[in-house]
Amino acid sequence: MRKLFVQTLFIALLISPPLLYAQNEIYNRLSLEECIKTGLQNNPAILSSQFFVEETQTKIDEAHSGYYPKVNLNSNATTYSNNNGSQRYENYNTGISASYNLFNGYRTKAGYNAAKDNYEANIFQHESIKQDLVLNITYAYYKTLQAERILKSTEEAVKNSQLHLDFANARNIAGMATRSDILKSEVELSNAELEKIKATNSLLAAKGNLNQLMGLPSNNAVEIVDDLSELNENPVQSYDSLFAEAMESRVEVKRFYSLLNAQQNYIQLAKGEYFPSLDANANYNFAGEKISGMQQNWWLGMTLTIPVFKGFSTKARVAGEEIALKGLEKDFEALKQQIGQEIWDAFLAVNESSERVMTTSKGLESARENLSLSEGEYKEGTGSIIQLTDAQTTFVAAEQNYIQAVADYKISLAELRRTTGNL
């Protein structure tokens, strides 16, 4: 009779509707693409990088000014006296002067080309910063989804633990369970509530990080679309194919090509100091001792400047620029090695996370079935409360391991795309 009573109570507890909490329905959830778009529009680091690119562009116009003549308006008035101060003289001069460089050892061309190469390098640098931001937002996005799902898991664990406690109380009333069963159920419930508190805080921290990357206040109430279940398991290319793709697509590689070209132009700019400089000059003015008596003057001419000796400064500058080129070449080799290591790590991470998804999926199914059997056995009186709480703990751990594996798989795919320059 007692057994029938306990079974009836257990079934009633299982089918009883859970408490409903009034929540505002959320309509505006941000997708990953929308989060990325928001970040690219609002993130201060991206905006700062864009301004730096625009600043570098002005250097091109500055360097191009060397191709144009220089025109100046000049006006001056002077007064002076002889040694004994008995006579005083005045002089007035006003006019226009112009000069144009005809040849300066190709320094203007080299400076202009270097400015263009640096501008291109900074464009690629800006693109690299953007891709890093996209990766960081993707990481934060899936870590937020992971935190959301883990919070839901802990909430379900609290409900199940409460159900187990209620059932233990019911069995104790019926004389089929001891006080120890109740205490163990209370401990299980307390642990579940503690994990829920931690999960709630982790979710808030994850959302704060995502908001910060999007250029929004950390406490912004952001809600995102859950796409963790969308697992498109496409085969991963071989390491060699991925590395070759990266060498063609990575903006960091393109940036170094621009920097190397710029450095070649800096060498040419330095070598230009060895060559003579030829300028055409013109002047037209009015001059005189009195303003009313100023006379018209003009002249045309050319100036040839031949460097003879500068204390070996030109030689030192050329040597310095050539050494800088060798340093860039070694930095380029280091970048290739770094990219290779990044691809290798990302390649391994994708394979590992993919295997973890399959393994944890099987483990989750086994843990779910084990929990169901343990609940049934405890209901029938053939199982113990320890067996039931262990099954509950195992199920929660298996569920959260699966959630983390899926999130890591999504993140590892994004990291692999970033290492190949296709994010």
Automatic annotation (TrEMBL):
UniProt xrefs under InterPro entries: CyaE, OMP_efflux, TolC-like
Cellular component aspect of the GO annotation: cell outer membrane; efflux pump complex
GO molecular function, one term: porin activity
Keywords carried by this UniProt record: Cell outer membrane, Membrane, Transmembrane, Transmembrane beta strand, Transport
Protein's cellular compartments: Cell outer membrane
Major subcellular site: membrane
Record has Hydrolase as a keyword: no
Keyword field contains Metal-binding: no
Domain of life: Bacteria
Family: Belongs to the outer membrane factor (OMF) (TC 1.B.17) family.
Name of the protein in its database record: TolC family protein
Species: Gaoshiqia sediminis
